[in-house]
């Protein structure tokens, strides 16, 4: 046990001191960088969500057109689909 402490103790203490010093000096810049990265990700996701909404609205329009066409071609089939909740 003492041999392990003698072997790894000084480098471990040095590493901890280095980490603590780095933490004290760069914590705010690290968190600022993280916040900026999350903000960019959120903005990208908002853009993607808007695109999905636009595509959904477009698909709804196509669906309405198809329902109108189906009602003129086969009104019974349209009623069957409506009864099934489509």
What descriptors fit this protein?
2 helices; mainly alpha
Give structural notes.
The mean pLDDT is 80. Helix content is 94%, strand content 0%. Helix 1 (2-73) runs antiparallel to helix 2 (75-83). It has helices at residues 2-73, 75-83. The chain contains two helices and no strands. The chain has 86 residues and is mainly α.
Output the structural class.
mainly alpha
Please provide the count of β strands: 0
Judging from the principal axes of the Cα atoms, what is the shape? rod-shaped
Oligomer: single chain
The percent range for strand residues is: under 5%
The succession of helices and strands, N to C, reads HH
Span between termini? 72 Å
Largest sheet: none
Mean pLDDT: 80
Rg over CA atoms: 31 Å
- Number of helical segments? 2
Task: Give helix % range.
Answer: over 70%
Low-pLDDT stretches are none
